[in-house]
Amino acid sequence: MSNRPKTIFEKIWDAHVVKRAEGYPDALFIDRHFIHEVTSPQAFDGLRKRNLPVFNIQRTTATADHNVPTKDQHLPIKEALSRHQVETLRKNCAEFGVELYDLGHPYQGIVHIIGPELGLTLPGMTIVCGDSHTSTHGAFGNIAFGIGTSEVEQVLATQCILQYKPKTMRIEINGQLGKGVVSKDIILYIISKISASGATGYFVEYAGDTIRNLSLEARMTICNMSIEMGARGGLIAPDETTFTYIKGRKFAPIGAAFDEAVATWKKLATDEGAKYDVVLTFDAADIAPMITYGTNPGMGIKVTDRIPTPAELKEISAQASFTKSLEYMALQPGAPLLGKPIDYVFIGSCTNARIEDLRLVAGMVKGKKKAEGVEVWVIPGSRQVEAQARQEGLDKIFEQAGFELRSPGCSACLGMNEDKVPPGKYCISTSNRNFEGRQGPKSRTFLASPLSAAAAAITGKVTDVRELM
Amino acid sequence: MKEKFTTLVSTGVPLPIENIDTDQIIPARFLKATTREGFGDNLFRDWRYDSAQNPMADFALNQSRYSGKILVAGKNFGCGSSREHAAWAIYDYGFRVVVSSFFADIFKNNALNNGLLPVVVSDSYLRSLLETLEREPNTSITVNLQDQKIKFNDREEWFEINAYKKTCLTNGYDDIDYLLSLRNEIKEYDLSHA
Fold first, then answer.
1. pLDDT tens-digit profile of B127-185?
2. What does the radius of gyration of chain A's CA atoms come to, in whole angstroms?
3. Does the beta-carbon distance from A81 to B162 stay under 8 Å?
4. Are A27 and B105 a contacting pair at CB < 8 A?
5. How does residue B26 score in pLDDT terms, banded at 50, 70 and 90?
6. B123 lies within 8 A of chain A by CB
7. Do B162 and A164 touch (CB under 8 A)?
8. What's the CA gap between B177 and B88, in Å, rounded?
9. Mutate to test the interface with A, among B36, B56, B58, B84 (most CBs of A within 10 A)
10. pLDDT of B17 higher than 90
11. A140 contacts: CB under 8 Å, gap ≥ 6
12. What is the ipTM of this complex?
């Protein structure tokens, strides 16, 4: 091995290559494989057809999240196809011996929330899941990325995946964040600057003192949305914040093993002089509370800005898609978003359904009431988050505000379960995608931070959260 | 073994929209099947049918003038969710090639793993192909995987595909066949990194 300086990404990647052969992609060993009900059934079928077991059940963890109702979870799922998919997961996990955190289990929740909170997600690992938001786990300093079902089958069968090494991008953010600006605003700002395809083909490392000063949960929100700019994944080198977060978690190493692990993790940081294919730098002072107005996450503005006009776009070829997008949203080019009435508020998803997100929301709405006619759903990311919220009395604050604290699941992030935003309605959402129909057929989504969503719940319209602080 | 891909000669369907995400290709509410078949019925569901389930006349797939096994779409095709169902739906509908100037990573992998060939062309070539198809829907397009060339009328362009994936498509191989041949090496790695 050469002594050339390496990035954290290269260090982890190179340490996991089982076989590098001329003319083939790298066979990359996978330390942790998370599975859920939607993208795994066909993969288990593949194993059955080939008469193969799961390669290493210790490295595989399952939960049910995408299809699950967030009300009356103790009852059978009403929708037949959703029920069938969850039951298929149950059967597959039982047959192949995979640990399943099923509905009702104290560890059940959104797959990208439970891995970290259980200490299954650790620095230096390779992690995959049949879900594009697997990049969330990168906040611990690991290589985590989403895969398709054929690849889920490969990993179940061989604990490896065939991959070409992506290019690397470093995104550095320095400086102090302004009032009302949280990690969701940072990532929405970056995506608005580099577009929904600006990092396609790259694996991103986030760095700089703004990132260093974020909590581990806030870092997860940033890594989570790496895929929304097309990145293969996004990571943040581990530090004391990371180690403190991991210590004492259910499956994390303990005692001497933990100290030993920390010593190893400390060596993961990018070496001085290591090269990236692209380096981008942003100033935290330029970031304000953000909101999206269009139908991809790159279509974002500062909440106080006006919606762009087609003439202001950099590329003429984008104008038709831009116009189509505004028509879908029923918004006018050049108009302000501030003051736009909203119908729904969704606080949840793998982007923003951790305890810190719920605390932010509770802090904003304590002693206040939601606006008349607005429906507010608060969906905790996991059973553990829900229990913690109740223990801290956040449920009471939500109740007094007229918010509904429900049971964990992906909920209204993707219009796959019972929680859907009705056609034509506007929803301010802490989730990650504003695609057409994402929250239900013909639904209209404004992506924003938990703080901004909470502010909109109180006023009933798109609001500059700083005015309520 | 999958279907082998060599050369395809076909007309194409133009979809001149950028950033088509996999939620448009197949909305989440249609991801509930536990097999790989039948997703073609719901391909571009919410662009193909209105809320009363009537076909929308202005959408390309509903226009009888357009047909063929080649889908031609705006740049950043297949962004968003990693759902392989998107590739299954396009294939199940009958397409074998998607042409665009830029593909999202996960979609590209999923397509290649299912015998669906993503052909990356230049922005100008894409624009010209889309305009030609809209004007002359019967234009024949040739996609030659061996030579890595796409051609319509007198316009020909070379496209990139990595050698390994090309071999897989040409022969109908799966990644899993190669990985299974490494079983012993993987076992050894697993034991030494427990």
1. 999 999 999 999 999 999 999 999 999 999 999 999 999 999 999 888 999 999 999 99
2. 21
3. no
4. no
5. very high
6. yes
7. yes
8. 20
9. B84
10. yes
11. A116, A121, A122, A123, A125, A216, A236, A238, A242, A246
12. 0.95
